Amino acid sequence: MKTKRQIEELKRKQYQRKRDSKLVETEARRGSWNAVQSLRPNLKKRAFSQEEEQFIVEMHAKMGNKWAQMAEHLPGRTDI
What we know:
Layout lengths: L3 H27 L3 H5 L11 H14 L3 H5 L9
């Protein structure tokens, strides 16, 4: 049998999933992905590492401004 606290925690998690899902749907319709991206826990928000920066410089020299394609090769990064 679950305690009252465990039940409340389950309800809170269910609410958060519903809220996050609605936020994703709303922002997708509006075209704003900033809020959607902030929900991705594996998204890196810090500055580029030296290795990432070197990769970007090399790929930009080869590909030009193809940021979405470059981001596919940088785990946790996005073209936004």
